[in-house]
Inverse folding.
């Protein structure tokens, strides 16, 4: 004989509401309520249990709440209604109480074809119960509905120990589309979770088609953990500084770098060095270098020089510098006059003598000097607008002989147009000479030449044979992902001085490529996921100092831009970090989903509590004691915060981030042979030299 719905509901009752507030509901448990295991829910399961789920009936279904704490109170009354002590000594009766956090509502759904009840969970509370309302244990069906509700949940990532091992499935659009942060201590299972999310997503997508998924995962791997993680999958591309049979040469050509990245690497100052560096980049990208002696280049050089002078004079005239900083302006005029004197003997047909005459006339009219301590001090009085306008008119006449003014912007300095690395420092030196600023660019030129000649990075940055479209095919993926869905970029051997720039360039190029994809495809996006391991190293909070931006700052700013704008262009971000307190607040604030493994550091715990808007006091207190493979999934990816036991990954599918086996080696259970000579030869590249012989 089956129980009526009312009788069945009564059998699931565990207590009544004793206190109600918007963020807490207190419950007085019945004496008959289970005190260890509930046997009346369809399948025996632990109750009461911290962070477990209970239901409170409402008009349209149930209010779902999570257990925060359980306690025993001694009642001031020795007896309770319906209880007899049989003449024993009257003592205060123990009352069991628990506190609940309201999470959402469980609504009735349509019955299935076999007549079984169905439910739909929705986050948020529409109305609160009253004091005295019953509190029920959820059935198996209800418990699974709480955890498994949601559309497009097609990727299984684990099960929930708090919900009768209900399947925990995710919607890839929610997880990857609005950025995911995987946070936890070393050894808590972060890397396995990241690898699992990628693998399980691809396996689930493959079930819907015969071909490999048209998916794109780009993994930035600073420790070389993922090199072999996806080897069993077809066409996985792995790039590293030192290639092998299965690992390709990492190539991030320096002509990919934009002006901000070059400025950060060279530590260029904003006033003098950065404008010269940008001009040099424009010229070398456009092929307008003046390193050879062809007549065409000579004319281009003159045109560019005169255009630069003309634009600067117009600027000085507008700003009033000819009168407020007259001596500085005068000495600059004197240097320009010397340049024109030299050039007029070469370019006789270009009216340089007229401009020279106008400059000398202005200098003569404003020049002054005095003697101090036996030394002659020269200075210039204020120049008049008429004098400067004469110079400007003369330069304009001279420019007409070489094709008119050449716009300073020309080719954008940030467009990835190919050029030889050696062209940049050579051209930069020539520009500095023309600007009489050679002493200001010596350091820049030296750093660039050191970079180009560094054998450690030469193979990575010096390639000029790979076209831009070939690089995009190789690193982001070909049409329909025919060359594979996963790209692993091993950054472990990239030198420290350029690793942030290399990382920034890869991330920026990916974002800009997807921006242009949407532009050329009527607003459609190409879904791509960028995975950043050890994110606290590359996306580290920084002080906003526009005058001196380091490579690390530039790298962080690229990821901040991806976090803010990537979703619009189909670029999702997955961050994995053991120190969330060191991450950029901008990036973390843009992550709408979190997968939290064990976190023991108090600063990191405090930050996580601030990031999470949900009413999760009890659940987040589990963070320091979570076992490996267990994590709390919350945010946009989950209808409610839930404890997940992640699916197990076979040993050969896990990233190589295991703890070192000290005892096994010490006790002789594991053998470790050492040949430091081979290591030294590899380090010093002796073997390759001998091989060449």
């Amino acid at each position: 004989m089956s129980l009526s719905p009312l009788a069945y509901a009564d059998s699931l009752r565990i207590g009544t509401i004793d206190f109600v507030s918007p963020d807490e509901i207190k419950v007085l448990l019945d004496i008959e309520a289970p005190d260890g295991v509930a046997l009346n829910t369809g399948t025996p399961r632990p109750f009461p249990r911290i962070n477990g789920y209970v239901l409170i009936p409402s008009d349209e279904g149930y209010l779902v709440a999570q257990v925060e704490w359980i306690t025993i109170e001694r009642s001031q009354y020795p007896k309770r209604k319906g209880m007899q002590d049989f003449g024993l000594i009257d003592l205060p009766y123990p009352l069991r109480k628990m506190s609940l956090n309201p999470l959402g509502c469980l609504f009735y759904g349509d019955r299935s074809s076999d007549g079984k009840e169905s439910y739909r969970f929705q986050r948020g509370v529409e109305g609160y119960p009253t004091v005295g309302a019953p509190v029920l244990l959820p059935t198996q069906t209800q418990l699974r509905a709480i955890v498994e509700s949601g559309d497009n949940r097609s990727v299984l990532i684990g099960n929930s120990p708090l919900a009768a091992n209900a399947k925990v499935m995710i919607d890839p659009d929610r997880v990857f589309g609005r950025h995911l942060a995987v946070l936890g201590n070393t050894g808590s299972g972060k890397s396995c979770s990241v690898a699992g999310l990628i693998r399980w997503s691809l396996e689930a997508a493959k079930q819907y088609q015969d071909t490999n998924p048209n998916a794109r995962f780009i993994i930035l791997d600073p420790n070389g953990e993922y090199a072999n993680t996806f080897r069993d999958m077809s066409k996985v591309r792995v790039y590293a500084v030192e290639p092998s049979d299965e690992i390709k040469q990492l190539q991030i050509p320096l002509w990919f770098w934009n002006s901000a990245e070059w400025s950060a690497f060279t530590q260029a100052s904003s006033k003098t060095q950065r404008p010269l560096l940008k001009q040099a980049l424009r010229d070398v990208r456009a092929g307008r270098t003046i390193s050879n002696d062809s007549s065409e280049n000579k004319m281009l050089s003159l045109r560019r020089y005169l255009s630069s002078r003309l634009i600067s004079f117009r600027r000085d005239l507008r700003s009033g510098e000819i009168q407020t900083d007259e001596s500085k302006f005068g000495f600059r005029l004197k240097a320009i006059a010397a340049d024109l004197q030299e050039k007029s003997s070469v370019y006789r047909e270009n009216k340089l003598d007229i401009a020279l005459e106008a400059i000398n006339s202005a200098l003569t009219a404003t020049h002054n000097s005095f003697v101090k301590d036996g030394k002659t001090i020269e200075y210039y009085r204020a120049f008049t607008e008429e004098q400067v306008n004469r110079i400007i008119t003369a330069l304009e006449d001279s420019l007409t002989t070489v094709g008119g003014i050449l716009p300073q912007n020309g080719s954008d300095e940030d467009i990835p147009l190919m050029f030889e690395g050696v062209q940049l420092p050579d051209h930069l030196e020539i520009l500095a000479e023309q600007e009489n600023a050679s002493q200001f660019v010596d350091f820049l030129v030296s750093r660039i030449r050191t970079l180009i000649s560094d054998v450690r990075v030469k193979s990575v940055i010096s390639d000029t044979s790979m076209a831009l479209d070939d690089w995009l095919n190789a690193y982001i993926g070909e049409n329909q992902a025919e060359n594979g869905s996963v790209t692993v970029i091993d950054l472990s051997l990239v030198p420290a001085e350029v690793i942030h720039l290399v990382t920034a360039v890869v991330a920026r190029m990916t974002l800009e490529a997807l921006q242009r994809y949407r532009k050329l495809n009527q607003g459609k996006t190409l879904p791509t996921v960028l995975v950043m391991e050890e994110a606290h190293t590359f996306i580290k909070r920084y002080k906003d100092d526009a005058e001196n931006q380091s490579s690390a700052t530039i790298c962080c700013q690229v990821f901040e831009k991806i976090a803010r704008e990537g979703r619009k262009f189909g670029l999702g971000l997955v961050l994995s970090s053991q120190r969330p307190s060191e991450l950029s607040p901008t990036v973390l604030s843009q992550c709408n989903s979190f997968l939290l493994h064990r976190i023991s550091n108090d600063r990191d715990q405090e930050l996580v509590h601030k990031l999470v808007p949900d009413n999760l006091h009890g659940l987040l207190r589990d963070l320091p004691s979570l076992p490996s493979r267990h994590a709390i999934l919350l945010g946009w990816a989950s209808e409610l915060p839930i404890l997940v036991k992640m699916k197990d990954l076979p040993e050969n599918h896990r990233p190589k981030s295991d703890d070192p086996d000290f005892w096994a080696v010490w006790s002789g259970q594991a053998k470790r042979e050492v040949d430091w000579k081979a290591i030294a030869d590899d380090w010093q590249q002796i073997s390759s030299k001998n091989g060449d012989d």
Summary: The CA atoms of residues 10 and 136 lie 8 Å apart. The chain has four domains: 5-149, 170-251+466-659, 259-442, 660-693. The two ends are 91 Å apart (CA to CA). Residues 295-319 form the longest helix (25 residues).
